[in-house]
Amino acid sequence: MGIRCLEDTLRTVLRRPVFGGYIVVVQTNGRSGSYNPHLHIIMTSGGIVPNGRGGHYWVKLKYLPYEILHKKWQYHLLEMLKEQDPTKEMRAKIDALYRKYPHGLVANVQKGAVPKRIRVLAKYLAKYVVSPPISVRRIISYDGHRVTYWYNDHKSGKRKVEQVDVFTFIGRMVQHILPKGMQQIRYYGLHATAVYRKIRKKLRAILPTDAAQCRETFTIARKGYRQRVIETTAKDPFICSRCGG
């Protein structure tokens, strides 16, 4: 649904059907470890359109009007609910939501430029893919019955401390385990593996010069056991906790 919303937004803004690329990252946890499923989507700044002669050309998206995105998201979300529950009660609730939110449903989109260095954005998203909801270093204490940990509150921007019983804490952790076979990162449109393999040479030829000559391509190095433990717990597993040897 998120992809359909963005495709519709691109089509409206650029006034033509555009085939873009999308990378979707599923994140299930909030900062406190609570269940807060949402998607991070990286979208191409434009897309390709047929040129009428069997080829394609690139159309660049110079500006994304958030007002249009708000309304498109509202439309696709509420229409999905209407399809899932085609009752009079649901239609009445949906009509009420349209009246209550005439400007759309998205309220937390921050205006501003995308990070100039893609590495910053990639590292931000990768952190949620490979890290647990609450790392060991954020646990302040555990007395056998209750767990105390801290997190940075998204609204206030301040550090908060929370204490819960051990079973509540375990429940908050295991609820984020994805079903077997579910992919946390999915690729759509131009980024879909099958599509990219077929058109990558043509795509490089029609991309804008600055994009075709992008130099910020990098490979994420594989991390070993020791490095992963240090990053997660802030402790070196190869150093004895008693003698330091």
Shape: globular
Strand order of the largest sheet: 2-1-8
- Counting DSSP H or I runs of 4 or more residues, the number of helices is 8
Mean pLDDT: 82
Could you characterize the architecture of this molecule?
By secondary structure, this protein is of the alpha+beta class. It has two domains: 178 residues, no CATH class; 44 residues, no CATH class. The protein contains eight helices and eight strands, in the order H-E-E-E-E-H-H-H-E-E-E-H-E-H-H-H. The protein has a three-stranded antiparallel beta sheet with strand order 2-1-8, sandwiched between helices. Helix 1 crosses helix 2 and helix 2 packs antiparallel against helix 3. It is globular. About 3% of the residues have low confidence.
Question: Which secondary structure elements does this structure contain, and how are they paired or packed?
Answer:
Elements: H1 2-14, E1 21-29, E2 35-43, E3 46-50, E4 56-60, H2 66-84, H3 88-100, H4 118-130, E5 139-142, E6 146-152, E7 159-165, H5 166-174, E8 185-189, H6 193-206, H7 209-212, H8 225-233
Antiparallel strand pairs: 1-2, 1-8, 3-4, 5-6, 6-7
